[in-house]
Design brief:
Chain lengths: 477, 477, 477, 477
């Protein structure tokens, strides 16, 4: 729901489990805790020893899976997926996990990410006789594995992964093993946990907490994890490159109770807010954060600045899919939808409004107006990340510069559009400093491409939407 | 949903509008903003000039009302209601508003509250030939109005209200007017707003903000507000007694963006938290609040104490009605439902956990365990209200002392049950001081009956569940 | 569904049971077998010894009642109701049974029929202080019972029934007894059965067959049946008048497997068809009936005439509530909805099309066209009842002469409108002769008011829709 | 629904249209008329010129497709499919049509039938690198087309079809054409129609009647029909073998208003009934048919024998998917489900009960008991087809001899099991005679394999379930 406010959508969440009596139930709770990573489709595939049982559908995990459905999915092994639809692609076929049947066994695949050289690889495979039943990048991997001349399955998978360029976290389930693979830059998060005797894999560690599992470690860039009835082992399918974990995971996508590369997301956000208070000290009466993702940064700013943190903005908790959108006329008369400003807190005050990022700017403009409408004397917008000026090709739906208000505009121009008294973005240096600040962090490098335009992989291979050649570089710190 | 965590349920929310082109739409948004006051049933009655159009159902406002339904409710006047089911009463008949048809016109009624002398009055009316089609207290008023010998409708209504003892906020809609009435102690909130040329009535002021209406004033205890095509006027149906607004509205029930008697709820909660920090200074590393209702108090405690406020507890946003409850076995294995503790924030720390109240204690116990399970070194529970030792007879579902952990137990005994390192409740004096603290407040007196056992009305009239005679007194401050 | 084809709607079906372990389940199956009598709403009330459990809703029995709902209705006594909405009255309040609560016990009421003096009685009761919560005639009886000065409940009920004029079959359930009452003319059917040790009441005997119960006898006109834990007994609340069972029950409304006054409906229809063949011998190649209600008459016509009966018209079995109606444009292009003609049977043939009645004529016209479109050389329409020229005031929704094609038109004029090669109606005498023909029949008299305009009760009392004074007479045979 | 009574399921229905403004709507109505051929899943694929729009789901056509869904499927070309699930295969992936994407265009496929050499072909294709995403035979054709070395698409399709052995009616839609192919024996029906300027293809001609289309001709065995914007043309992909249209299509599967090979199904059934009356003259009072599929045969028997046809068995029209099944206990107490016997018609009579076939015998046994329970003096069961002794491998779900009561039992043994006074099956000769009887028929040969064990194709190729070698022969007449 928050994502509807923002217009910035992470595309997927992954969960897998091997060797648990209630594989379907655990996968359900795991996916449920990853719901923020994808709210438009969900799927679970369970292997019951003899066959795959699959259930997929549009909507939230709780909408797709009833108790009856989950109860009818016995089996000890499973993978699940939540997703956004990308580029208006709403065909049911593309809801993951995808299944592939063969007389030698079944294959189930789920992907978080985006393959840069997908178009070229599809053409190549089609020329060799492959038929594609979906338009999903995920299907590529299946054909590449099938086509591989390597002698055993693991070698085939490693070869197939090596053909792909982009950001990808894959779950691969066969009758005999559950595999997890992460691209050589480690652009998306993927972690390993243990629940009793069972191994679990999830996009975020919050899934481990919700099911009572213990965090073991993150999957490394270029690593292929193989879990089977003998246990767990690891192979590198590619030399690890410089880690480039998406910085927006910390800023916005991930749940505050997750740890990414051992750095807690809430703590990271709070540090971003503190750094912002250092970079942009503002005289004001109250601080408020845009719920929910900016609360931590706002608290950090408040702690650093000494200005009191208040609930100046309230999100309506019961606005769901079936909520009736107000007509244009009613909106103009003042009917609010998802967010309202708290007059009792804001009236007559100079307000610092902390947000995590600005994408199109329309939401920021609306919130500034909400605050002024209930009497805010001044509204100072502070953003706990740098301006997003460049599209993402790794699985976030900002694929065009046209949608990005910061692309080609000065901060002052943006300020004027959103109607704030002042506008401050966190600096790139400040962002990196804040993310490095915490002792527990094992973050080695981050993808700042949407801020800097420096992409960690090639991106101009075959996507016609990528017009300009962009060097394969990324910021090192 | 939070209420499910707490086990403390306010029973109703009211909304009414007179003279607006989109009465049904506005009532929908108004009710939606009051959803926290009742999530098990909703109803809207619209008067289209010729007839009443009614739609009621079980569930959330967004579940009962589709766009099509609202669009098919033209008319300029309407009232709506959200409710909890009380005492296992789930019969559809009791979903409000209730309708009464007569050749002289139609009557629609909605009630927030509870009538203490309902049993006696029903028996009296039945003896005179009245038939009851519901078991709701609301129906009483209709029969009393019908039976009244007074010459005009307003006199009838005033006489009928005078026969009732208890806590009640009524909305009354006829073909010619919309009325709002509040019991002489003003136990529940009820406010008047203006939206363009239309008058609106709502249980909380947050409804005005969401529809873009202006707050005019609160309905006074003992007052009957009459809105018709000529405008608005007021009559007293009973002498105003000492105001006794339910203190738990500030502590827990109301939305933080509402103002009750001109005191902002978030601000009130923050002041309760500050007062708690003064009364109970504790040495600790982090402060966390139980979401959502205790966040403000936790921030207040943090501001006063200087100990950092952190997101140590996270509520799962997507857990709704259709969520599959984990089995006992899975729960024992550690599967969480609605709340999870954030290891990255809590591990190794001394934690102050702020909650607004303790009812049965089971939730507190569970949360303390959640925090300890993720590594909290110490958990100090501080409660921003006094112990709830007495049942409520005014519309909150704590009708038996047996359900109240604080009834007949010392604080030390409760602490041991919930497993905290320490437990502190706010004092009654501290609570009153905190609620008086804000300049804007027009609160003249509060009902503290659940803490003190001193009830603002007679309560032992005819309810067999009330065993002991309790004097009609209430705390004055 | 068929009724949608016809535009002639019976309004209700009743079922009651006393003293059965599975009262709710049995009532469900009973109502289900009466579904043809009302498809727009259904309700069941079960008395579990301590309280009433009620479930009502819009739609079919299978839509309103899930297994879970029925399983949650324990109790040994119950009544149920299926209904059509009359006069656009779709308010949920009017779905029956209606419930009335009192400290002396609960009352549940269900009605099949229509009260002629409802308006006058409501005004009278309102003047005495009664409040009506529905616009249903059923509620009248509750107030009349409550107001009655008679000393005991049975006397009150008898007095109340005596105040009512019209056609009514009532089920009345209290904590202590189940009652069934039939108006003095016995206009609607109502029968008594026995299922093991339990007594059951139903609108049609097909309900007994479906639950495995034994038919005992029909309720007599003017009779009040009282079933309680002691057994069953009968009292007359009014002198029985000349029986006037609705003739259209035989012709169209009832299920062919029901017996009305011991006359099987299929047999009656077949006899109507035979009589029609005697009155209207036509030279033709094939006979076809309009499914489903005219099949029996068509078979009778075929048997009598020697012309082969064929399936010339097929009803689409899967067309339900959610069927997408073809647009006007598609209909004009030939898209059919519920009925299609069978070219392989009809092409090049002279066809006798048997239908049971003509109301508006639009359906007949459409079916004639269907048959001609697939090659019928001639279409001879024969109707197994006389022309419907007069409105019904007893619970069938033909309340205005304007809707009746036969009102004010000659048979030749109607023939021209519907485009048939010939059109024949059964004579009134032929109809009565056919209904008397079977030895088993205990039918003493029938209401032919819609054919003759002679109504068995007063009808011009207070209904403004009844413009002309019509003598209280009815046809005797 | 009837199929639930019988336990004999045809697996699929096909519909396709090229060049119509409302392709989705027309396909909806077409599929709807074919609903009897498959009630567990439905799908429509529309080509809007640029892309494929697909919607598939479990359940009836009216359950899968809402008005909104159909309205959101613009485009001029489309194919649709209704299906049964076979062998417990309920995976969503297998709901047809199946889609295949390629940079050279899209392919949509739908199949009615079963491929005998599917296992062998899959293994072969997998060895060449193909990956299967479904377990449906339909997917085979896509891979075979893709793998074909032939120079153009039509040649590829013809070569691919030639690799398949079995019973198949395929619809194939690309961006440029709609194709229809029928196996060389023409085991399943497939017909061509014209609707204005549009060509349509359907499994049965009833679909043409429902949409107002004109029947052109049937697809010939071994024929490939190609429809594109230039018009329609035909090629043979295989030499036509002896036609072997499934005889059970006439007996049971098809709708009575369809013509198969120009022979009307109702007429065919009536002739089967007449032939049965000739072969098995029985002294009795009434004849009744098991609804719905045996009505025509019963009428034929009655016409031939002079014994009156009556509605002795009534099907409950409102029993759908959500109907609550009676518990075993209630069933034993006499609660009926889908069928009830009419006491008023049957009591004291000698009854001839006409049914079209006996599969397991459990239903026949139940119906005989129903009739005897309401007083039938004698029940003579006559079956309008020979005993089903052999499994079907062509798409009907009688895959094991164990399920067939007639397999290995004498007629007298079956009679004893079902409890009838006598039991007669139609002879094979009589069946063929009856099917040849009508002048309009163009039926050249029928598959009687389930009666005779003589299969028109090889069947022992690679299906492990087929234990014995069965010669490739079929009965000639």
């Amino acid at each position: 729901m928050l994502t509807e406010i923002k217009g910035l959508n992470e595309e997927c969440g992954l969960f897998g489990i091997w060797n648990h009596d209630n594989a379907a139930h655990i996968t359900y709770y795991g996916l449920q805790s990853l719901q923020h990573r994808g709210q438009e489709g969900a799927g679970i595939v369970i292997n019951d020893g003899n066959k795959l049982i699959v259930k997929k559908g549009e909507g939230l995990v709780t909408e797709v899976f009833s108790k009856q459905v989950i109860d009818e999915m016995p089996g000890h092994k499973g993978i699940g997926h939540v997703r956004y639809t990308v580029n208006g692609d709403r065909s049911f076929e593309n809801i993951q996990p995808l299944l592939f049947h063969s007389h030698t066994g079944n294959l189930a695949l789920a992907l978080n990410g985006s393959i840069i050289n997908a178009g070229r690889m599809r053409a190549l495979l089609e020329a060799q006789g492959s038929i594609f039943q979906t338009t999903s990048d995920t299907e590529l991997l299946a054909h590449l594995i099938k086509r591989s001349k390597h002698p055993n399955f693991i070698s085939k998978v490693k070869a197939a992964l090596n053909s792909l360029i982009g950001a990808y976290a894959f779950l691969i389930m066969t009758d005999n093993e559950l595999m997890a693979a992460l691209d050589p830059n480690g652009i998306h998060p993927l972690s390993i946990g243990k629940l009793g005797e069972s191994y679990v894999i999830a996009s975020e560690t919050c899934a481990f907490d919700i099911i009572g599992a213990e965090f073991i470690r993150d999957v490394e860039p270029g690593e292929l994890i193989i879990i089977n009835d003998e246990g767990i082992h690891s192979e590198m399918f590619a030399p690890k490159e410089k880690m480039a974990l998406c910085a927006m995971e910390y800023v916005y996508f991930a749940r505050p109770d997750s740890n990414l590369r051992s750095l807690n997301v809430h703590t990271a956000r709070k540090n971003l807010g503190k750094q912002l208070a250092i970079e942009a000290p503002i005289e004001a009466d109250v601080i408020t954060g845009v719920p929910d993702s900016s609360i931590s940064a706002a608290i950090g700013y408040a702690e650093q600045s000494g200005i009191p943190y208040e609930l100046g903005l309230i999100k309506n908790r019961y606005v769901g899919r079936t909520f009736i959108q107000p007509t244009q006329q009613l909106r103009e008369q003042g009917v609010k939808m998802k967010l309202s400003a708290v007059r009792g807190v804001v009236d007559g005050k100079r307000v610092i409004m902390v947000d995590d990022s600005i994408v199109r700017g329309t939401t920021s403009k609306r919130i500034v107006k909400l605050l002024k409408d209930v009497g805010a004397k001044e509204v100072h917008v502070v953003i706990s990340s740098p301006p997003i000026e460049h599209p993402c090709f790794y699985g976030v739906d900002t694929t065009s510069k046209d949608d990005l208000i910061a692309s080609g505009r000065t901060v002052e121009e943006i300020r004027e559009i959103i109607g704030a008294n002042s506008l401050t973005f966190l600096s790139e240096e400040g962002m990196l400093k804040a993310l490095k600040q915490d002792d527990s962090s094992k973050l080695e490098g981050a993808c700042l491409a949407c801020f800097t335009g420096e992409y960690p992989t090639e991106i101009n291979i075959d996507e016609p939407t990528v017009a300009t050649t962009i060097n394969k570089v990324y910021r090192i710190y």
